[in-house]
Specification:
The chain is an alpha+beta fold. It is about 25% helix and about 30% strand. The chain is built from 3 helices and 5 strands; from the N terminus they run E-H-H-H-E-E-E-E. Strands 1-3-4-5-2 form a 5-stranded antiparallel beta sheet.
Length: about 140
């Protein structure tokens, strides 16, 4: 949920850290995401298929992991429409065990560059269990002047 407070470009400095975000993912979350995205690949819900594919267990959807990271940025900006560019590479899957804890995804962001036209580049670090699950994750946002 966004705060309703929009950060201004003049208030941002290189090196500033975004508030960190921790998200717990359960198998139920994966089922909900599958329904919303219409991505019913069985590696996201069937442990046997996941293991046959060489995975340790069921994994979260890559686009879900990306969305969690993007949400960290939009909560910071206060405006879900502020993102004008977003990119990443998947480096490791988010394994979601079938237990009460599930998987914990942690997202941290840092202002990496102030660009022209009130744009700001945010570099993101996204981990699960201490392992980086997204590489080269970054967003460019346009902020009010």
């Amino acid at each position: 949920m966004t705060t309703g407070v929009t950060i201004s470009a003049k208030d941002v400095t290189v090196g500033a850290e975004l508030p960190p975000r921790t998200v717990m993912l359960s198998r139920t979350d994966l089922v909900r995401y599958a329904g919303a995205s219409e991505d019913f690949n069985p590696v996201h819900w069937n442990p046997r298929v996941a293991r046959e594919a060489g995975l340790p267990d069921v994994i979260a959807h890559g686009m879900l992991t990306m969305a969690l990271a993007a949400r960290t940025v939009t909560e910071w900006t206060g405006d879900p429409g502020a993102i004008v560019e977003y990119r990443t590479r998947f480096s490791k899957p988010v394994v979601v065990p079938d237990d009460a804890q599930g998987a914990t995804v942690e997202v941290r962001g840092t202002v990496a560059a102030l660009l022209d036209d009130a744009r700001v580049r945010i570099d993101l670090v996204v981990t699960c269990g201490g392992t980086k699950v997204l590489s080269e994750a970054r967003a460019v946002v346009r902020l009010p002047s």
